[in-house]
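Rotation project, supervised by the postdoc (A.L.). Task for the rotation student: set up a whole-complex structure prediction and record inputs and outputs verbatim in this book. Inputs entered:
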Amino acid sequence: MHGRLKVKTSEEQAEAKRLEREQKLKLYLSATQAIFQKRQAGELDESVLELTSQILGANPDFATLWNCRREVLQQLETQKSPEELAALVKAELGFLESCLQVNPKSYGTWHHRCWLLSRLPEPNWARELELCARFLEVDERNFHCWDYRRFVAAQAAVPHTEELAFTDSLITRNFSNYSSWHYRSCLLPQLHLEPDSGPEGRLPEDVLLRELALVQNAFFTDPNDQSAWFYHRWLLGRADPQDALHCLHVSRDEACLSVSFSRPLLVGSGMETLLLMVDGSPLAVEWRTPDGRNRPNRVWLCDLPAASLNDQLPQHTFCVIWMAGDAQKECVLLKGRQEGWCRDLAMDEQLFRCELSVEKSTVLQSELESCKELQELEPENKWCLLTIILLMRALDPLLYEKEMLQYFQTLKAVDPMRAAYLDDLRSKFLLENSVLKMEYAEVRVLHLAHKDLTVLCHLEQLLLVTHLDLSHNRLRALPPALAALRCLEVLQANDNAIESLDGVTNLPRLQELLVCGNRLQQPTALQSLASCPRLVLLNLQGNPLCQAVGISEQLAKLLPSVSSILT
Amino acid sequence: MANNLPSEFDVIVIGTGLPESIIAAACSRSGQRVLHVDSQDLHEDVEEAGALQKNHASVTSVNSTVAADSVCLPKEDESLSTVSCEIPAEQTPSSNPESAPEVNDVEAIEEKENDCNDKTCMQATSEKETSENVPTAENTAEQPKKNMITYSQIVKEGRKFNIDLVSKLLYSRGLLIELLIKSNVSRYAEFKNITRILAFREGRVEQVPCSRADVFNSKQLTMVEKRMLMKFLTFCMEYEEHPDEYKAYEEMTFSEYLKTQKLTPNLQHFVLHSIAMTSEATSTTIDGLKATKNFLRCLGRYGNTPFLFPLYGQGELPQCFCRMCAVFGGIYCLHHSVQCLVVDKDSRKCKAIIDQFGQRIISKHFIVEDSYFSENTCSNIQYRQISRAILITDRSVLKTDSDQQISILTVPASEPGTSAVRVIELCSSTMTCMKGTYLVHLTCTSSKTAREDLEPVVQKLFTPYTETEIENEEVEKPRLLWALYFNMRDSSDISRNSYNDLSSNVYICSGPDCGLGNDNAVKQAEALFQQICPNEDFCPPPPNPEDIVLDGDSLQPEPSESSSILPTNSETPKESPYLGNPEEPSE
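Outputs recorded:
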């Protein structure tokens, strides 16, 4: 047809493109080679800047070349006049910006800019803030730029209120912005530093309520947006529990002292220091964990020398001081007693409520109400369901137990992908409730049968328990942390899916272990039981290993001290 | 002057409205030789009326342009064919879409006599206007307050106004945007996002939260309302996938259906009038859901509302397509009228046009805008009318921190039988009005005259310009500085069969319709283009300059006209200088 433009065919175009690419690659490789040669030869001059800029301009992610540039710039700093240096820096800043336009998410480029700015005698922070604003205008979720902005704001000492207002403006534009919410969570505690709010730095109630209203707006608008829910969780549960010693137990028989802590710690030289005072004098002891592995743990033990347990005095006082945690606990072993202990009651310390720990239950109550309102509108929203559960936990775990279990059921139905996680979470909450109930009843017997448990946690809370019933659950193992149960005498774990008994180790008082109807396959799975000196009754009925020929003999050989083994 | 146009083309396009311009661009892009003429000296007669005084000129020129009687100029070689004349362009309706019912507007009538022709007479024109025909504007020279815009200032700054006769917006996923992108024509225009969707409810103007960010930021909605609105909108996005949720309501109107949803009355109002923008009385559930989905689909592509507005006005867009046409060799003659079409007696096909200088230009295809046809041709057609008002005001109907808001507001029909009025308020950064003023367009389907249809709404939203009132109280409503009411013909949706005696190679383009978007114009252009150039791609992007083969020796037989017309090699896409008067003789 006449008048038609003649255009290259696609083959011609492809060929032209191929030639172009070939040419490009050649240039790229030769420039790279030249740079490395110069670097090796120590020729760190402006020509290296020129060469690296050719490559970085096209591919800003070549981290080695940024290093090269830094070396050159450092070198030049010593050689050039201030005017020349100023020109150099100006060029470098311009070059960096052009690289950021090529890839606004290049780690190397942002890092180089940080490096450069922090070396300048009089950096122009205002310009940097403006640069960040421009890049965030294009992509408000570019976390590289957010990181850099936080660096700049810190260097320039931008008032926190201004930065908070900046996050406001970005959240207004699009609240689905983790970076922005996160920045708020950094700024708010700094803005509301109150001397009396303690190390946890909780927010004043009016600020908290304002933030809750903001985040509620977000999750009512779009309940499926995770960023808002995460911020909500942070608002309600920001405080870390204070370091504390929860329980101190001394046993005369085993000549052993056990301590449980609020968080896992590693005791040893160069690590945390624990100081033991017996009757007012320090005593040097070897600390170890119940499972003998000496990894970070919440429970630590030490053997006591006979002298500190002798019956001559009416009582012995034991005091453990946790230096770093600035905490201590003391207990008394009276004459004629086998054991002595001192512990915090779980309910007093709200041990289990650290997920959400706002003091004001009115705030939590009103949050619970709005979430329930939302849940009625969005019965299948998992974030809402989970938040309701957490709020109930924080408000009154025992009162809401039944309701909580129903919500778990709904939640599992709407989020089957996370069923196992939810089962574990549910197990954890049920176990917490059982511990609370046990403590209210002031007994050392814990019944956890028929609770559909999938995992055991908070075992460090069970330091004093003597009888534990775990039967009819879905446990697949008795975990190593079980070794913390120093007083356990009877352990029932019938009808689970247990394959390993690793946790049943070094239990000094264990006499009976009932693990009928489980999935123990090999006699070797029972090896650890040999470390329980007082074990006399072991019931293994209904486990696969009972089918093996000559199993009784094998077991008798493996566990000679166990007088009664039922297979 | 232009007696030396080439005498042969493939396609002649008469009228520079949007559909005609798109067809011209598409044909030219496909290698057709295109001649594009318009009897107006403004580039887009239909769409745009240039600066303020130009607008007046075009409004008032209606009567002055005398409908040339159709003259048939048979040529020797056509002696066999009696030439039936398809109607001269310079017919009353040709110059102005609003012309047909122009009588019903007082202002326009009054101006008609005294306003002559030229931009230069603006001073006189404006003087005249102020004294005679703009009832809402006072021509007092005294300035009541410093920062108050007066009528005389507007007249003085008349060049700052670009007033579209047609008021439309671009849906950001509408056909026009897709076409602008596909064809690369978008590079010739700049756009601004509409910033607000407004509603008129219980006598008050309020902002409609329609995007996620709006809903999040809204202070007027309760938490539960936020959820309900978001939930409903989310459903509308994919309503087709949940037929069980609306099938039962298919028989009822959309407004009834909304009542069955858990939406509070204000949410129902927002969805019905401001988001779906459907009629309360007549739209069905499906219509409403479809319209809502379309609105939502367009959200977020370029901003938090679904609409774009071209800087300098809607009238820019036909111009952009014309530019594309010219880049590929199309020839432009503005202010060039066509006396008649020449029809071959035997074949009943149109062969040529005779232009105002009597030159006979032959072509294969003829695209003619509806208003260029004679009354005879259109005698069987009952045109609908569009009521329009254009206002200049001194502040926004809803004040916010920023004075640079572009808003669309739907005022629902007040009584049965009338239609809702669409109000588009443009701020000065759209480059359509001077700083400190707002240009407001009102549009609805006519039930009476434009003034009767629209004045009640104008009275609700604005106050007349009077100084006394201002001194007494701080008026909340914007003041009217200038107002113009007119009706224009709606020639859309008219079947080709309704026109009398059309040759098969004469194609009709309708003038603008009453709708908000431009889909009709694009559909029309594409359909006509497919008839003219079957199996050709519609407005493909221009090739990359690097991919153009420049050695002309491979394909020599260029048509003589086009090679001589273009000063440079016609293969390089370069703008043809012939935007005005072609000067070189073609043969």
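Student's summary: The radius of gyration of chain B is 25 Å.
Supervisor addendum: DSSP finds 17 helices and 18 strands in chain B.
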